[in-house]
Amino acid sequence: MEPGTVALVVLAAFAAGWVDAVVGGGGLLQLPALLLVPGITPVQALATNKLGSIFGTTTSALTYYRRARPDLRTAVPMASVALAGSLLGASIAASLPAGVIKPVIVIALVAVAVFTALRPALGQITALRYAGRTHYVAAALIGAAIGTYDGVLGPGTGTFLVIAMVSLLGYDFLQASAKAKIVNVATNLGALIFFIPHGSVVWGLGLLLALGNASGGWLGARMAIARGTGFIRVVFLLVVAALVVVLGRDVWQENLSPLFG
């Protein structure tokens, strides 16, 4: 690779690690940068993206754990189910019509953005919706659903985890982000378990991504913990808006643009 391409990839990985650590959605930056690398295939880009991302999510998860002390009784079982879902999703990604899924995701993201913007108190404090076994079952179902999504499609997995834990389980944004990182480590690992035996990972490039992603993840997690839920909420809305734009563009190009010539 040319030095300029290397610099762009590492910078994108750093920014992606920071965004992922705060609220998820770093793949919006990292994956397009990977696709600019000469000779890389889309599958190699997806697999190499997961390798870089797992270093960033692990770094931010450890930082959150040391400083925010997320409840592992919820996060670890949720992560275990999400890992299985991600592995399943990666194995069926080739046969599942993404063109059908993306419009639904865009509509859901718009609804979530409006809902969050109109409710400024949402995610400010932890007020759990469920107790006991019901809480853990709900967390496991969220982990399974979003883990499978990560294996199949991927963009915004961390953001969807935060959305679900704030709106469905009742966590504040800081605790939701902390748990989301633990679950996101598992979803990245699940996808890699599928991609590595198939030879899809570009290792040298992936290790460059890992360096940038881990640095960004460390900084992002520390900033999120220091600035609290209000800061995370603002970044969350910005990332959701970016997801709507990127996925909306894909929906237009894949489904609507041919209708208008």
Automatic annotation (TrEMBL):
It is a multi-pass membrane protein. It comes from the Bacteria. It is found in: Cell membrane. The chain crosses the membrane at residues 76-94, 100-118, 130-149, 186-211, 231-252. Keywords: Cell membrane, Membrane, Transmembrane, Transmembrane helix, Transport. Belongs to the 4-toluene sulfonate uptake permease (TSUP) (TC 2.A.102) family. This is Probable membrane transporter protein. It comes from Kineococcus gynurae.
